[in-house]
Write a structure and sequence with these properties.
Number of strands: 10
Number of helices: 10
Number of domains: 2
Distance between the termini: 34 Å
Largest sheet: 5 strands, mixed
Strand order of the largest sheet: 6-7-2-1-8
Order of helices and strands: EEEEEEEEHHHHHHHHHEEH
Strand content: 15-25%
Helix content: 40-55%
Shape: elongated
């Protein structure tokens, strides 16, 4: 035969609009908290006055309340907030006049009616003052124009990189490895367009149109454009290399998630799967893209050495020539430093958007 149910110690306090309950249970597991017919039903496993057991209780409220309590579990206790249906002060918590033995006032949060009215008045005054301050801040007359520009920019970039990705994927399935060798001649015009347009991201950051930090944008955009225009664009011998396929493919996959995320952010929409993809796919793709760029630079060094292209002879008694292959070797070091800078920046962003949040349960 089952024994009487165990009841935890419960402390309560009120405001004009809320009821606060503090349940003295630690290490709470599997809490089941509902309100039906104005009665709160509680059942949970936890460590209370009778050790680690299942505890339960019921409270029939004096006046009507909303049926959706908000609960917050901590290591030492469980807090429940219940909204009153009407803003007023109750003379007691329960419908029955005699207070249940497990229930006691929460003196840490207890206020008399006059004190609670003063607190409510202060909150309303604070809200009014905040509205007054916000009304004094001049509104940006170009706000909608800026938002429209950012939406169009991100949409165009998304469509451009989508075209690149789809085109390369279809060609890969149809032609197989043969598609590696003519990627540049097929895709370069669209990639030139997208990467030239990407320079606007630096301008957007400079004039404060977006809150993105300037240095990571400069590192990524100038790094890509250096590979695209200086190395691939100037050396026909490099344009038929398989590494071009991998560079373009890794770039395009990354942008397939970045630009839609920014576009939706402009209109205040956050789609959680897209947010996760935007701050996760870069983890394998960014190092792979950087490695592909490094391979491209290494493969171009012998060609630049043979042709002498972009090497600069200085008119001086020593007849010193600045060899462009040497510049590329220095750039390789800068490339990996840039990858580290951007990797660190992206990791901080991922932690900010996908990091752990306070545990709440409704």
């Amino acid at each position: 035969m089952a024994g009487p149910s165990l009841r935890p110690h419960v402390h309560w306090a009120q405001r004009h609009r809320q009821i606060f309950l503090r349940v003295e249970l630690s290490d709470v597991r599997n809490p089941d908290i509902t309100i039906t017919d104005n009665v709160l039903h509680f059942r949970a496993q936890g460590h209370g006055a009778k050790g680690d057991n299942i505890y339960e209780f019921e409270i029939e409220f004096l006046e009507p309340v909303e049926p959706k309590p908000v609960c917050r579990v901590t290591q030492r206790q469980l807090n429940i907030t219940v909204q009153k249906k009407e803003s007023n002060w109750w003379e007691r918590l329960t419908k029955q006049e005699k207070r249940p033995l497990f229930l006691a006032p929460d003196f840490d949060r207890w206020l008399d009616e006059s004190d609670a009215e003063m607190e409510l008045k202060e909150k309303e005054e604070e809200k009014i003052n905040k509205m007054k301050i916000e009304s004094r801040v001049p509104k940006d007359p170009f706000k909608h124009l800026k938002k429209g520009y950012l939406i169009m920019y991100n949409l165009v970039q998304f469509l451009g990189f989508s075209w690149i990705f789809v085109n390369m994927t279809v060609r890969l399935f149809i032609l197989g490895k043969d598609s590696f060798y003519d990627t540049f001649h097929t895709i370069s015009d669209m990639m030139y367009f997208c990467q030239t347009l990407a320079l606007m991201e630096i301008m957007n950051s400079l004039i404060g149109l977006v809150r993105s930090p300037l240095i990571p944008s400069v590192v990524q955009i100038f790094g890509r454009n250096f590979v695209l225009f200086v190395i691939l664009g100037s050396l026909e011998e490099m344009q038929s290399k398989p590494v071009v396929f991998f560079i373009f493919y890794f770039w395009s996959i990354t942008e397939l998630f970045r630009y839609p995320y920014y576009m939706l952010s402009c209109i205040g929409i956050e789609w959680k799967p897209l947010t996760w993809l935007r701050y996760t796919v870069w983890i394998p793709l960014y190092p792979l893209g950087g490695l592909s760029e490094a391979v491209c630079i290494v493969q171009s060094i012998p060609i630049f050495s043979e042709t002498g292209k972009f090497s600069l002879g200085l008119p001086n008694p020593l007849n010193v020539t600045i060899q462009f292959p040497f510049v590329l070797q220095i750039y390789l070091i800068a490339l990996f430093l840039g990858i580290f800078v951007n990797f660190r920046h992206l990791y901080k962003q991922r932690k900010q958007h996908l990091g752990p949040k306070k545990r709440k349960m409704k």
